[in-house]
Amino acid sequence: MRHFAACSYEEQVTRLTATAQRVMAAYGLDVGQITLLVYVNNAVFEVQTSSGRYILRMHRPHYKTPEIIRSELIWLHALHSETALCVPSPVLTQAGEWLAQGVVEGLETPLTCVLFHALDGAPLAAADYSLAQVEQVGAFLGRLHAHSRSFVPLAGFTRPRLDYHGLFGANGVYAAHANAALFTASDRAIFAEVGQRVREVMAALAQEAGFGLIHADCIAKNMLWRGEALCVIDFDDCAFGYYLYDLAPFLLNLSGTSHYEHAKAALWEGYTAVRHCPPHYRDYLETFIAARHVASCYWVAGNQDNPYVRGKAAQLIRLRVEELADFLRTGKLERRSTQL
Question: What are the backbone dihedrals phi and psi of residue 235, each rounded to the nearest 5 degrees, phi first?
């Protein structure tokens, strides 16, 4: 049997789709059509049933433990129950479990799967956001962090930490030991210099109440709009991190747009209207954007089992390292590379 990682993208999708069909039996739903929505990191499917639409996420192997995945769903359940924020609502299996297991041809271990009620809406390209919508995203993150500050995890709750070691450490969240050869000595030097700036910012924030559960991947494609209503999806990367870092992914999306500086101000205004921050905190944002960009390089290098990512990895890393070098010279990160 061919190893799964050696299969073409199309063959991997065929095997994952067959597994998705089998996994749905754990939920006791009358399944109609199953459609792949995206397969870059995890495989995500839309599932049509007689009782409505659902989203099935199939986690890529060896990336997150079941305890980490279960903890995401626990926080989402709390957010859905305790706030008015529009976030995914997870679905229990018939056995009362948050997680299901899917056996995939060519993989030695089953993949962990989770199911959500589907949310209506569609994402916008970052360049199409109005300043009012950007401000609304800021307010959403402010309310999310307000809940984070009051949320008390039970024993066993486990999510990664995106502190300095989590972002830049040898055993950090995005460490890519098997594919470290993709990085040159010059790349590593640039990462280290960015890391030192991030360490200094984090040290300045260490005594503040600015660390807790964050979304950590609040980007344009993870925000759905229904008219003026905003829903934020895909909490797969949620982690314990600095609240300011949670603004960085969307700012990185907006970077390079003609209205970036105005959008940055709108995001800050929306956020601080909900969660007060000292004015000088805004000066830290570009450094956190650079930290996110380093994390994206590590993520690309660590996701080589996916043929779609593997074919783009080297060029993406080269372009993003150039952008990080520009940040070190200018203090601002302007994204020109594409986003997967």
Answer: -90, 20
Q: Please, are residues 69 and 88 in contact by the beta-carbon 8 Å criterion?
A: no
Provide DSSP, 97-128: -S-EEE--TT-SSPEEEEEEE----B---GGG
Q: What average pLDDT does this structure show over 224-245?
A: 97
User: Residue 1's pLDDT is what?
Assistant: 37
Q: What is the pLDDT of residue 220?
A: 97
Is there a single domain that holds both residue 264 and residue 299? yes
Amino acid 201 reads V
Amino acid at 331: G
**Which residues on neighbouring strands pair with residue 322, listed in sequence order?**
none
321 and 188 fall within a common domain: yes
Instruction: Identify whether 130 is part of a domain.
Output: yes
